[in-house]
Amino acid sequence: MKALAGALHQHVVATLLERLPAAAFIIDEESFLTTLVGGASHRNGIDPGATIGRNVLEKLGSLPDAGALSAMLAEARAGRGGRRTWSGGGRSYELSLDPLRSEDGRVIGVLGTAFDMTAELQAKDDLQRSNEILERAERLASFGTWSFDILADRLTLSRELRTMFGFTADEPATREDFLERIEPEDRERIRLALSDALHGTPCPSADGRIVRRDGTLRWLRQEIAVRSDAGGRPVELNGTALDIDDRKMLEQ
After folding, report:
1. Residues forming beta bridges with residue 207, ordered by sequence position
2. Nearest 5 degrees, angle CA 33-CA 89-CA 118?
3. 141-251 and 2-120 share a CATH fold
């Protein structure tokens, strides 16, 4: 019964690894690859049958960043595991190498795992590029964006809006800090616009002046939208602030 349970466990683990963008492998004391399982190997055209039994040191020399990989392997053999991001063949992996020990604690090999992080890293790069494009657009058009998480009571300002309001890049900004930067004569108007948005009353726009740190005033046009959860409860306010100071000067 134990043998059957063990075999079933191994089958389940192997099946899961085959379906995941990951690979697990074992390197013995003489640097030969003894085990290789996981979907990542098949997706990259690696045939475990043709790879198992080969000396990994012979293969390392042809891989990108071979020196760092050799150092990782040496560290694992010395009993110290390590992790790093490694790229090769147009893909990126989160690679880990850990010592494999016998019952008496002696290092008898290396256990490695490699998770394919290509899609995740690409998504992160795409998001960063999108943010950079948005920041350039905000700077050119003199507008900024903000969001307020109602449940967490957390305000997030875009980089350009921080500049417009006079906040530094890493300076904490609360809802009250935000309102404090608005000219006192206009503050109640903006506060009411925020309150209306919270209670579901449409608020096309609200104009108000902000007080810069140097004491100068700038007219901004705020547009506010509310995001609600599935039950209709407001959970987030999203706003834009457009610099209309030149327009206001012309109107006067």
Report:
1. 221
2. 100
3. yes
Residue 8 confidence (pLDDT): 42
- Look up residue 196 and give its two tokens: 């209306």
The whole-angstrom separation of Cα 181 and Cα 234 is: 25
* Phi, psi for residue 23 in degrees, rounded to 5: -140, 145
Residue 179: which H helix or E strand, with range?
helix 175-180
User: Under CATH, what is the fold of the domain 141-251?
Assistant: Beta-Lactamase (3.30.450)
Distance separating alpha carbons of residues 176 and 236, to the nearest angstrom: 16
Amino acid letter, residue 165: F
pLDDT of residue 28: 87
pLDDT along the chain (252 residues), means of 10: 43 53 83 76 59 77 78 89 83 88 89 84 79 69 86 90 87 89 91 83 80 87 88 88 82 68
CA dist., res. 219 & res. 113, Å (int)? 56
Question: Is the CB of residue 118 less than 8 Å from the CB of residue 38?
Answer: no
Distance CA 64, CA 228 (A): 49
**Can you give the pTM of this predicted structure?**
0.53
Residue 60 contacts residue 133 (beta carbons within 8 Å): no
CATH 3.40.190.10 fits 2-120, yes or no: no
Q: What's the pLDDT score for residue 5?
A: 40
* Cα 151 to Cα 35, 46, 148, 163, 237, distances in angstroms: 49, 49, 9, 26, 11
